[in-house]
Structure formats: structure tokens, C-alpha cells
Design brief:
By secondary structure, the protein is mainly alpha-helical. The chain is built from 6 helices and 3 strands; from the N terminus they run ααβααββαα. Strands 1-3-2 form a 3-stranded antiparallel β-sheet.
């Protein structure tokens, strides 16, 4: 099996990615620290996953450290996590734009019912505020 295959196999399981993330965040960690932090009770299963990370982890004394290749894998994991978070944030902003438009429509409707006919200057001010608030939300979603 080539190095590329080993790396992709190493990263194919969530527990292994969690191990890489944990060690990457701390720069080194012991067997027990990693196992306890990931709440894995079966030490033989945990050992199996650690062995599957050989190209990405090095063992020094009683601690595990990321190898050069492991540091690259760690950055890749962080990058893909950030992309997923960014995508969810953009979706929430899109919902916020719709909610903002509905809120402003409700405000204008309520004021016009309460005040009667709104003056054109008041309507233009409210429309401008609605437009600016949606523009800000839209710019955040880019």
C-alpha cells in the first residue's frame, strides 16, 4: 500500500480524525490523555486506531506527536471544518435576510395601521432602513 493510500485510510475514520485534531491542538499527548478526552473506554479499539495513524503520528517517550505529514493532515481537517462552519453561517444569514424583510414589512404595516396613512418621507425612511439592513446581511453572506 502506497503512502497516499495509507494517509487516506488513516483519515477515513472519525475517531482517527479526532485523535489528529486532539494531538494537533496540544502538540503532544499521552495515550491516556487522548483516550480519556475522546471518551473511548475500549483500549484495544483505541490502540487499533492509533496504529492506523502511523504515517501521521510519531511516538516520543510516552507522548504522541504529529509527524510532518500529520501536521498537513491536521491543517486539512481544520480547513474542512472551517468550510462547513462557513457554509452553515451563510445559510443562517440567508434566513436572517428573509426574516429581516418580514420584520420590516410587519413594522411598516403596524405603523401605517396605527398612524393611518404614512407620509411619503416616513415611508421612504423606513424603506431605506429596510434596504440598508438587508444589504448589510447580504454583504455578510458573501
Amino acid at each position: 500500500m502506497g503512502l497516499e493510500d495509507q494517509v487516506f485510510k488513516s483519515l477515513s475514520h472519525q475517531i482517527r480524525r479526532d485523535i489528529i485534531r486532539y494531538v494537533g491542538e496540544r502538540s503532544k499527548a499521552s495515550f491516556t490523555e487522548i483516550r480519556n478526552s475522546l471518551r473511548i473506554e475500549d483500549s484495544s479499539m483505541f490502540s487499533y486506531h492509533l496504529n492506523g495513524l502511523r504515517p501521521l503520528l510519531q511516538q516520543h517517550d510516552s507522548n504522541y506527536l504529529l509527524s510532518d505529514l500529520g501536521r498537513h493532515a491536521y491543517r486539512l481537517i481544520l480547513g474542512t471544518t472551517a468550510l462547513g462552519t462557513e457554509s452553515r453561517l451563510k445559510m443562517r444569514i440567508r434566513y436572517a435576510i428573509v426574516a429581516n424583510a418580514l420584520l420590516w414589512a410587519r413594522v411598516i404595516f403596524s405603523i401605517s395601521n396605527w398612524q393611518g396613512h404614512l407620509q411619503s418621507q416616513t415611508m421612504m425612511s423606513l424603506a431605506a432602513l429596510w434596504f440598508i439592513s438587508n444589504l448589510i446581511l447580504y454583504r455578510l453572506s458573501l
